[in-house]
Amino acid sequence: MPEQYEADYRRTIAQAVAGRFLGHSTIEIIRDASSGGYDSPGYHAPGHNAPGHNAPARPPEHALFDFDGTLSLIREGWPEVMVPMMVEILSATGTRETPEELHGIAYSFVMELNGKQTIYQMIRLADEVRARGGTPREPLEYKETYHARLMERIRGRREALRSGKARPRDFLVPYSEEILDELRGRGVKLYLASGTDEKYVVEEARLLGLDRWFGEKCYGAIDDYTNYSKAMVIERILSENRVEGSLLLGFGDGYVEIENVKAAGGTAVAVATNEAKRDGTVDGWKRDRLIGVGADIVIPDYRDWRQLVAYLWNEKGWDK
Description:
Elements: E1 20-21, E2 28-29, E3 62-65, H1 79-91, H2 99-112, H3 118-131, H4 139-163, H5 176-185, E4 189-197, H6 198-207, H7 211-214, E5 218-221, H8 230-241, E6 248-252, H9 255-263, E7 267-271, H10 284-291, E8 297-299, H11 305-312
Parallel strand pairs: 3-4, 3-6, 4-5, 6-7, 7-8
Antiparallel strand pairs: 1-2, 2-8
Helix pairs in contact: 1-2, 3-4
C-alpha cells in the first residue's frame, strides 16, 4: 500500500497500563516526555510520583491539533448518523442478516476506522455491499449521502453559532480556548489537521472562532484522498520549519494523529473526552485505543491546562 494511504489501526502497546496522575489533576502520564518507552529511565511505575521527569531538551515549538472530538464538538453523535445509513444500504443487498446484526457489524468497522478520513469508512461500506452480492455505489457518493444527513442533524447547532444564540464554548472541548491562548503566548505555532473534509473544517473552525489561533493553517480531507493525510501535514511542518520531530506536540482523539506524531518523534497527548457529558471524565474506549498506539499523556479535556503546560515545559508546579 502506498505511503500516502492511512494505515489501519494496529496496537503497538498490548495493554493499556495505568499511568500516574500529576498531583490532583486529570492528567495521566503514560510515559514521560521524550522517554523511550515503558521500560525507559523516564517511565515511573503506576502510582509512583517521581520528583522530576525527562523533559525534552527544548520545549515544543509546533503543536498539531485534530479537529472533531479534540477541539470541536459540533459533530458529537455522528455515529448515530453514519451507522444507520450503512444498515439501510446493507439491508438493501437482500442479506438475511437482521438490522440488529448489521448495526453491530457497521458500528464495529466504523469505530475501528475512526480517526482516518471519512472516505475510508465509505470504502469499507462498498466492500461490505460487494461481499453480500450487491453492486456498490462509489465511496464518494456514500460520503456525500452521509454528509447530507449529518448536516441535517447538526443544522441547529451550526445555525445557533452563526446567529449568536450559542457561544463557541458550548461546542468546544472544555478549556480549548485557554490552552490555545497559552500555547500561542509561548510562541508555539499551531496547526489543525482533520479527517473531515476541508471545506467543513474551515467553515466550522470559523463558527467556533478557532481561526483566531489557526488562521489558514487548517487542513482537512480532499476528494483525492491519496494526496492528503495527517502524516503529510506533519512532514510539511517539519520540513518547512527545518525542525526535528521532538519539537512537535500533538493533540488528538483519533489513533491516526497519535500514531503520526509518535512516528515523527513528537509528544502525543490523547484527548479522551466524554463528548456527551463533558464533565471531566475519560472515555475509556478512547483511552485504551490511543494508549494502544503510543500516546504519552491522556487527558479528558483541557481543564488542567496550566499543569499540562508546566509539565511539558518542565516548570515548577507541574506536580502540584
